[in-house]
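note to self — DONT lose this again. spent like an hour looking for the file last time. sequence + predicted structure for the chain T wanted, 195 res
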Amino acid sequence: MSNTFPAALGHWHNRYLLMRHGHSLANQQGLIISSPERGLAGFGLSPRGQEQLDERLADWRWARPDRILHSDFLRTAETAERIARHFGLWLEAEPRLRERHFGAFEGEGSDCYTEVWARDARDPAHRHSGVEAVTEVAARMSAVITDLECRHAGETILLISHGDPLQILLTALESRDLSQHRERASLEPASITVL
């Protein structure tokens, strides 16, 4: 699956591919896994996620990446490792690409997302139940691109992260109100969005 994000064409010093990790064990079990304590060592790719990556790599139709940065959670690290191995690239773990922390909803069913997203729509700065504010996620995700723009030019950079952070980043890059981040079409596991 591929998405195109035309608003930034001609704007960047680099080309960016934004990828959501492949289908994970957390997806399979319908659980929110957003804390480093659980996400760094557990809940990696599901068999379905591994198949998705095999399909992406067999039918790679995007620019070959020069550099791969990824969230250090296991599901994103495993996604990045498979792609890096395919292209013969080094990996760089980037904690700012981590999953959005869902506070008290950690380990709960994924149906709890709707409560958080409803609050996001009213106030993107909320931290209800210890949830990481949308504004904070946007700042850390945008900072990754800002730093890369300062350090590199003319590269194709693959950033591997999670659904919510990527939706928030894309909303920020569109200069839309961050309360609207769930109005974007959801990014599917293993999908790639081109900036």
